[in-house]
Write a structure and sequence with these properties.
There is one protein chain. A seven-stranded parallel beta sheet has the order 3-2-1-4-5-6-7, sandwiched between helices. It has one domain: NAD(P)-binding Rossmann-like Domain (Rossmann fold, 3-Layer(aba) Sandwich), CATH 3.40.50. It has 257 residues and is an alpha/beta fold. Helix 3 runs parallel beside helix 4, helix 4 runs parallel beside helix 5 and helix 8 crosses helix 9. It contains nine helices and seven strands, in the order E-H-E-H-E-H-E-H-E-H-E-H-H-E-H-H.
Length: 257
């Protein structure tokens, strides 16, 4: 039985991917700081899952969780580096603690998963590291500068490791979703009483169902593209970044305010 370990598995994309892979008969490991949410995810899966309450910033917790999961599953076919948070607003008004937390979870947490997970993936032929990037990694999003920067870093890491780990038989992929209907959109926008969800809706941008992201994750793991774009916004931005960069720049200068 193939096995996938998913961070950010207590809700949103992580939960949907757990359900998608469980439906294909995979063994599931889910990790998150939200123990109650993890329990809800496990209860939704037909055969349950191995559950780990952990913070992706904690390297010792990474080692303990992957040791336990691979000991029980006997293998690690996919490590899904998905945990992330969203905080928006003008950079000049951002709280430094929020900036540090955003970078530590969204990028350092992914680095931790990649660095520590490599040995487990290398022991399973044909394995895959899957990372969650964002449409904000296509062109930096005004009002989401630090978030965009972390997702650009995740995208670059995916490209670099796909080359670096090829000799070890490990594929590296990322999903690049637009705005997805998940609790991440409930994050606040600095300097206002708005959430990211409010800002997205006011900008007239689409919200993509989380199930579409789960299907994209399945396709990414089994496909040959490093980047898999998910949802209308991400696909339009990818097209514009390539063919209409001036128009995209003008749009981003207006910002999400």
């Amino acid at each position: 039985m193939k096995a996938i370990f998913i961070t950010g598995g207590a809700s949103g994309i992580g939960r949907a991917v757990a359900q998608r892979f469980a439906a294909e008969g995979w063994r599931i490991g889910v990790a998150d700081v939200d123990a109650a949410g993890l329990a809800e995810t496990v209860a939704m899966l037909p055969d349950g899952a191995d559950s780990y309450t952990m913070d992706v910033r904690d390297r010792n917790a990474w080692g303990r969780s992957l040791d336990d999961f691979t000991r029980q599953a006997g293998r690690l076919d996919v490590l899904f580096n998905n945990a992330g948070i969203g905080v928006g607003g003008p950079l000049a008004e951002a709280d430094f603690a929020d900036l540090d937390r955003l970078v530590a979870i969204n990028f350092t947490g992914v680095l931790n998963g990649a660095r520590i997970g490599h040995a487990y993936l290398a022991a399973t032929p044909g394995s895959c590291l899957l990372n969650t990037a964002s449409a904000s990694a296509i062109y930096g999003s005004a009002g989401l500068a630090t978030y965009s920067a972390t997702k650009f870093a995740v995208r670059a890491l995916s490209e670099a490791l796909d080359g670096e780990w090829a000799a070890a038989g490990i594929k590296v992929r990322d999903i690049v979703p637009g705005f997805i209907e998940t609790p991440l959109l409930d994050g606040g926008v600095a300097g206002s009483n708005h959430t990211i969800r409010d800002t997205v809706k006011e900008a007239g941008l689409e919200l993509t169902p989380v199930e579409a992201v789960a299907d994209a994750a399945w396709a990414a793991v089994h496909g040959d593209r490093v980047h898999t774009y998910v949802g209308p916004t991400a696909k339009r931005m990818a097209f514009a970044a390539r063919w209409m960069p001036g128009k995209l720049r003008t749009m981003m200068r207006r910002g999400l305010s």
